[in-house]
Structure formats: structure tokens, C-alpha cells
Amino acid sequence: MASSTLSLCSSLSVQCKISHKLRTPVVSNNPNLPFLSLPSSHKLSLSSNRLAFPLPPRAAATESEAPPVLEAEVETPKLEEDAAPAVEASPEEPPPKREEIFAVVMIGSRQYIVFPGRFIYTQRLKGANINDKIVLKKVLLVGTKNSTYIGKPVVTNAAVHAVVEEQGLDKKVIVFKYKKKKNYRRNIGHRQPITRIKITGITGYQDYPAVTLDEAAV
Question: Positive or negative CA dihedral for 52, 56, 58, 62?
Fold first, then answer.
């Protein structure tokens, strides 16, 4: 009987060592084997061994230990105190006003109102080349801001000075001919030769008797 008890104790001690290494003790709840049940003191020792291991650090600790984030500082440019003063632009002088004058001149069989500094298109001037200076002497009327010079039929000694700028052709004009019931149709285009001249001045009218506004009112 003593030998069987010793053998059971030795086997139980071996089994407890193995279970201690595996950290999962073998506990039997069979009432027929009371000698296999572990005492309460051994259970407490196992639970104390489990808590002996260090716990992993929590996430809060890792977040608190994270290195602080540095905020970048933006440097604002400093205004130069010794900046050069702004130079005020001087107002531009207006161009001198031209004399308010006009004339009515006859070129060929047409009459044109001309102003100094402007250009007009006239009928082709024969023998005139580009940049040629011409003088128009058939001046029918000259008007200024305060007086008018009316020719009878022309203003004597008055002249209009101009420069030839271009010799060309006018826009095309369609000439269409048609006869009914005769199968007759003709489509013809025509471009009239013209000359562009620029008026440079009006002179020679001062000696002619003028009609003022007061005289015209009477």
C-alpha cells in the first residue's frame, strides 16, 4: 500500500511539473479521483505566475511619447522704409487745335466738302502719281467759325492744297441685263478708277468779301 502511494505521488509531481511548463495545469473534476484535484494554494501560485509577465505598453502611452510636431513659421516680408518716392507723371500737353475751317471744291463734275487733315476719294486724276502735291482752284465756298466766303461762282484766289496718297479702284458694281422670252442675260462687273487725296490746307480766301453771322441775320 505504501509503495502504490509513493508511485502515485511521483507521477503526480511529474504531471504538475509538465503542466507548470505548459502554463495549463491539468485539473480533473472527477469525484472518483480526489487525489488528482489541485489544492487552492497551487492554483493561486499559477495565477500569480501568469501575472508575473510584463504587460505590453498601451497605445495612450505611445501617443503621449510621440515627438512634438513643430509648426513652420512664415516670415512676412518687411517693407523697405527707404523706398524711392513715386515719380508723378506730368500731364501731357494736348495737341494744338487746328483751325476750324472747311471748303467746298469741285473736282471734275462733282463737288466735295473738304477739311484740313482729312482724306477723300475722288475720280481718277489723270497724270497724278503717289506723293504728288496738287492744288485745287475751283473753290465754291469757304467757311470758318465766324464767317463764310461764298463764291460767285468761285472764291477768287482761294486754293485747296492736297497730296495724292493712292491710285486704285472702287468697289465692284454688277451690271445685269435681261430680256424676257429671248433667253438673253448678261452679267457684267465694273470697278471705277479712283484717287485718294489728303487735304493739307486751305489758303487765299482772306481777301475775298466775307459774310458774317450778323449780316446773315439781318
Answer: positive
Q: State the amino acid at position 3 in one-letter form.
A: S
Question: Which residue type sits at 139?
Answer: V
d(CA 121, CA 116): 14
Confidence (pTM): 0.51
3-state secondary structure of 29: coil
Pairing of strands 159-169, 133-136: antiparallel
Write out pLDDT tens, residues 93-148: 666 566 689 999 999 889 999 999 999 999 999 889 999 999 999 999 999 988 89
pLDDT digits (tens, 9 = 90+) for 150-163: 999 999 999 999 99
Is residue 46 a contact partner of residue 16, using CB atoms and an 8 Å limit? Answer: no
- In the numeric block, the cell 453771322 is attached to 213
Grid coordinates representing 189? 462687273
List b or e across 73-106, with b for residues whose CB sees 16 or more CB atoms inside 10 angstroms: eeeeeeeeeeeeeeeeeeeeeeeeeeeeeebbbe
Backbone angles phi, psi at 192, to 5 degrees: -80, 130
| DSSP state, residue 210 | P
Quickly count: other Cβ atoms within 10 Å of residue 159's Cβ. 18
Alpha carbon 12 to chain centroid, angstroms:
95
